[in-house]
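REQUEST FORM: STRUCTURE PREDICTION
Request ID: SP-0412
Submitted by: Lab K.M.
Chain count: 1
Length (residues): 240
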Amino acid sequence: MPNKRDAGRSGTSAGRRDTAAGRWAASPSPSSRVWSGVLASIAAATVVLACGGGGAKTPATGAGRADAGAEGGPGAGLTTSPPPSGLPPMASMPPPGVAGSKKAKRRPDAALAACSGATRTPAKDPADLVKRLGDGCMQASKMKPASAMLRGQQADKDTHQENKLRVEANRCYRLYVAADDSVKDMVVVLRDSAGDIVAESPGPAVPEDGAVCFNAADEISILVGVGSGKGTWAAQVWSD
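STATUS: Completed
RESULT:
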């Protein structure tokens, strides 16, 4: 029959075993921690899939792309090619209701359009042709030379050439221009000091159908650009 001392030792040993078992129960093994993390990840993935993927984007359908193009307008996604390097750069768009220069107005004249149109024979010397153009229209225009003879040599790969000219108020002007046979295409643009276009033409006169009359004194720019070919050109401004 056990005595009280043996019973105490047995109770103490049992208590230590219970305490150790509690520690093992409170501290899971490394493998159990890994499996707990795996199960938590699987559970989270299941929730995301069940909710539609959270931030996943639905691919655009053909109809969606068509709608997007319609919203962008006819020119959506389109790019434009720059003009040939030899042509003068485009002027900025004038404000609504304003067409061209505020400092000059075009004066159509059928007699001037007829006289310059009748003198288109090429010449080896462009300056000689310009002189004949001015002389041929002198009676109809009642004009005389208002500038020296402008000359240049240019190719379609070159940038435009620019000359300046002072014009007077209440006077009308017309420019005559010619190039040799090697220049296949050219354009001349007249701009006022604000950068607005006064007139433009491929020649032989600018403007082709008359003259430009200024309501204020100004300094205009004469821009010559070659679009095709390479050669020499000449130009002269006439005024009344």
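NOTES: Confidence is low (pLDDT under 50) at residues 1-32, 45-76, 94-98.
Reviewed by: T.R.
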